[in-house]
Amino acid sequence: MLSNREVVAAIADGLGDWRKLAQPLAARFRTADTVAAAAFVGAVAGAAAAAGRQPEIRLGYGAVDVALSTADESGGRWVTAADLDLARTVSELAREHRLTAVPGEVTQVELALDTADHTAVAPFWSALLTGEPGHVVGDTVLDPTNRVPSLWFQGTDPHAAPRQRWHADLWLAPEVAEDRIAAAVAAGGTVVDASGAPSFTVLADPDGNKVCVCTALDRD
Asked: Up-side HSE of residue 202: CA atoms within 13 Å toward CB?
C-alpha cells in the first residue's frame, strides 16, 4: 500500500490525468460521443481484467469517471503500485480513443460525524447505509460496492445538541480548491479555519453550517 505522499509524487511524475481523493486515485475523461465512450469503457475493462484489477467505472453524461484502489484484508481501500500501473494504461487508452482528461473535475463527497465513541455508533450506520453492520474499517464506514458516500467518524469530546455534529468533506483536485472556496465565499459563505490548508479548509454557510474542502496535499 502506498502512502498518500507517494501517490501525490507519482501524479507529479507522469500521471497528470489523475488525482488522489480520500481513498481512490481518480480521473475523469470528457467525451461528446456516447458510443466512443462506451468503447473506451470496454477497453479499460479488458485491460483491467488482464491485469487482475477491478476499477470502478462510471459512464455519465459527457464523461467517463474511473477510480482505482485496492482493498486490504480489513476492507479498507488504498492505492497500490498496481493501481498506478493501471492508471498509466487507462490514460494511454483514453488518448487512443480521443477522450480528454479533465483532472480538475474529479470530486468525492465523504460524510463526517462527530462522536466520542465511534465503536458504539458505527454498526448502526453501517447497517443503515450498506445493509450490513460489519462494513466498518477503522473509523470509517465503507460500502464495498460504493453505492453511498463513505462515513468517517471524527473523534470529539462528548457534547449535546444543538452543536453541529454532521458535516461534509468535499475532496477536490488541489488546483481547483482555492477557486471553489472563493466561489463559496462569494456566494455568502465564510472561511472558518484555513490553518490546515491545503490539506483542508473549513467553510461555513450563512447559517453557520460547516463543510471541509479537502485535498491530498500535505497528508501522509
From this structure: 9
